[in-house]
Amino acid sequence: MEVVPLGSASEIAVLAADVIEAVVRRKRAAVLGLATGSTPLPVYQELIRRHNAAAGPAYDGVTCFNLDEYVGLPAGHEQSYRATIARELTDGLGISPAQVNGPDPSPAELPTAGERYEALIKAAGGVDVQLLGIGSDGHLAFNEPGSSLASRTRIKTLTAQTRKDNARFFDSPDEVPTHVLTQGLGTVLEARHLLLIATGDGKAAAAAAAVEGPVSASCPASVLQLHPHVTVLLDQAAASRLDRLDYYTEVYAAKPTWQGL
Ligand code: GLP
């Protein structure tokens, strides 16, 4: 795991956009794993800014897979993750909606939604780079504490904390769905490169537990310690509770430029 302490969310956005663009430049048919929440928004804005300035790669061969989706919202709801990803990123990059996949929350199809999503990811050849945020309770995608570290895409029930955290996106807290479909932790671990980003004080404890705590279902993001290629980009506030912060800073400062992330 490579932990990169950075000065601000905008520095994270630049570096994360560099990583994603490098994958697409190297592989025109790249498969991108996308996350929702507030943390990735500066990254998405940076990618769109570069695309509009004709400084980005061609996205016409790219396929995307969203990490998760609410269950129980009307189809096309503006807070569905399918609508959010289109609005915040893929429409802006000119990626066709047909190339953007998400778990299917339609009620009649729920029992098979997980295995169908797994099959779609597999058929696309797997995810090349997966962008990830982290919940204040250490959740990854929507894998709440207690999730199996080997879990696959399935339905989950949100914790009260996560529903409270996400209430800001809805008119009232009661509108936040109780159920979701989420890639499992075992599914996430199959992506070739995992890029976790976290900003702000509210993520400091979860980031420290994920990076330096024991690998445990009590902190689902700690499963990242089992993956061979993980990059963690943190701003100062999110990095503030790391015991080895000085070491990570020293390692990054001395990193050979040829090595990349
Ligand atoms: C959401 C998403 C996660 C995201 C997390 C943090 O509920 N399912 O993928 O990483 O919560 O969100 P934010 O970046 O808004 O803090």
What's this model, at a glance?
By secondary structure, the protein is α/β, with parallel strands linked by helices.
Which helices and strands appear, and what pairs or packs with what?
Layout lengths: L1 E4 L3 H18 L4 E4 L6 H12 L10 E4 L1 E4 L9 H10 L9 E2 L8 H14 L5 E4 L21 E4 L2 H7 L12 E4 L2 H4 L4 E6 L5 H9 L17 E5 L1 H4 L5 H9 L8
Parallel strand pairs: 1-10, 2-3, 2-6, 3-5, 6-9, 9-10
Antiparallel strand pairs: 4-8, 7-8
This protein binds 2-amino-2-deoxy-6-O-phosphono-alpha-D-glucopyranose.
Description:
The model has no long low-confidence stretch (mean pLDDT 97). The chain has one domain (2-255): Rossmann fold (3-Layer(aba) Sandwich). The chain has helices spanning 9-26, 41-52, 81-90, 110-123, 160-166, 185-188, 204-212, 236-239, 245-253; strands spanning 2-5, 31-34, 63-66, 68-71, 100-101, 129-132, 154-157, 179-182, 193-198, 230-234. The protein is an alpha/beta fold. The strands form two sheets. The protein has a seven-stranded parallel β-sheet, with helices on both faces. It has a three-stranded antiparallel β-sheet with strand order 4-8-7. Helix 2 (41-52) links the parallel strand 2 and strand 3. It is globular and about 55 Å long. The chain is built from nine helices and ten strands. Bound molecules: 2-amino-2-deoxy-6-O-phosphono-alpha-D-glucopyranose (GLP). The site of 2-amino-2-deoxy-6-O-phosphono-alpha-D-glucopyranose has 14 residues, from helix 5. Residues 35-39, 67-68, 133-135, 141-142, 162, 166 line the site of 2-amino-2-deoxy-6-O-phosphono-alpha-D-glucopyranose.
